[in-house]
Amino acid sequence: MSPGANGDFKSRVTVVGSGNWGSVAAKLIASNALKLPFFHDEVRMWVFEEVLPNGEKLTDVINKTNENVKYLPGIKLGRNVVADPDLENAVKEANMLVFVTPHQFMGGICKKLKGKVTGEVEAISLVKGMEVKKEGPRMISSLISKELGINSCVLMGANIANEIAVEKFSEATVGYRESREIADTWVQLFSTPYFMVTPVHDVEGVELCGTLKNVVAIAAGFVDGLEMGNNTKAAIMRIGLREMRALSKLLFPSVKDSTFFESCGVADVITTCLGGRNRRVAEAFAQSGGKRSFDELEAEMLQGQKLQGVSTAREVYEVLNHCGWLEMFPLFSTVHQICTGRLKPEAIVHYRDHKA
User: At which positions is NAD(+) bound (predicted)?
Assistant: First the structure.
């Protein structure tokens, strides 16, 4: 049921995930849950329990200080955000679920929630990534829908979390499959004067933009680490955007060209290639001449946050290889081969620019 359909009905929201972006999402939602009459004030946030260096549990500290001291220090989440380490309990009464975890954890989360999510529940995925199956890639929104039997929209965009946390203006795109009414509800829940959200009738296009741009960001990081300059970086971003569009349309012919001009498309490519953790770690990888592994750099540089681009590059490579498309996507293919040490970082510009 969508909020407002029944005067007495109030939606309950749970955020599944509590990393950097999950905490910012909870902050955005919490501010609107207090203002909008058709949402319960309380916003639950599932936290993967961790013990901090001082011996305290992360959930206890979040609930005591109203701050995610590990993944979003210095930012108050809103007094109505309640951290819960028990996944089933966190989603128990919610009819609106916001998924925002590293994509590699989503399979396990959906397995745990299978059969526990009942009634008229709507989901939205802020997760960037895909599962690769023998029959082809499965997007995270499809995983949620299939495993839990609920509809899932997606929210993607040029969203570096720390900037939104301090309320710098930014945009995002909600991709929806059928109901515009549900999409509008999600837009209301996320929109603030500094966070402008637009609905687009193209789930796969929006979600693939959010997923594939992390591979382009890895390429941009290689360019920065090798000090190749702005012209080279612009070329890599353009080629990357073109490969994103070509692959999206091969996988899902319904994907719209116009989606790539939304925040989830060109804007997200730009911000992720200028800032963002994938670019930063790939830069360090290239500076080391590929001698330091991404796992080592991730552990050293990201304080527990996860890289998405390297695993997505592997998943994309598997799809391209399986379908016989490697030659059509030289940038995507090259990124994976650099990540695995088959090619040196310098190879990022040493390929023929095939027309995809």
Answer: 17-22, 48, 105, 161, 277, 306, 308
66 burial level (CB within 10 Å; 0-12, 13-18, 19+): middle
**Is 285 marked within a binding site?**
no
Contact 144, 160 (CB under 8 A): no
**48 labelled binding-site residue:** yes
Longest Cα separation, the chain: 62
Whole-angstrom CA distances from 31 to 2, 25, 40, 42 are: 19, 10, 11, 10
Q: Is 213 a catalytic residue?
A: yes
The whole-model pTM stands at 0.93
Among 246, 237, 219, residue whose Cα is nearest residue 310: 219
By CB neighbour count within 10 A (0-12 exposed, 13-18 middle, 19+ buried), where does 169 fall?
exposed
102 Cβ contact list (under 8 Å, min separation 6): 19, 127, 129, 306, 308
Q: What domains, with CATH codes, occur in the chain?
A: 11-201 (3.40.50.720), 205-347 (1.10.1040.10)
- Measured from the Cβ of residue 212, the count of other Cβ atoms closer than 10 Å reads 28
Angstrom distances, CA of residue 52 to CA of 24, 26, 69, 238: 20, 21, 9, 42
d(CA 112, CA 252): 29
Q: Which of 27, 213, 233, 249 is catalytic?
A: 213
Q: Per-residue pLDDT for the chain (356 aa), expressed as one digit of tens each?
A: 454 444 568 999 999 999 999 999 999 999 999 999 999 999 999 999 999 999 999 999 999 999 999 999 999 999 999 999 999 999 999 999 999 999 989 999 999 999 999 879 999 999 998 888 767 789 999 999 999 999 999 999 999 999 999 999 999 999 999 899 999 999 999 999 999 999 999 999 999 999 999 999 999 999 999 999 999 999 999 999 999 999 999 999 999 999 999 999 999 999 999 999 999 999 999 999 999 999 999 999 998 888 889 999 999 999 999 999 999 999 999 999 999 999 999 999 986 544 44
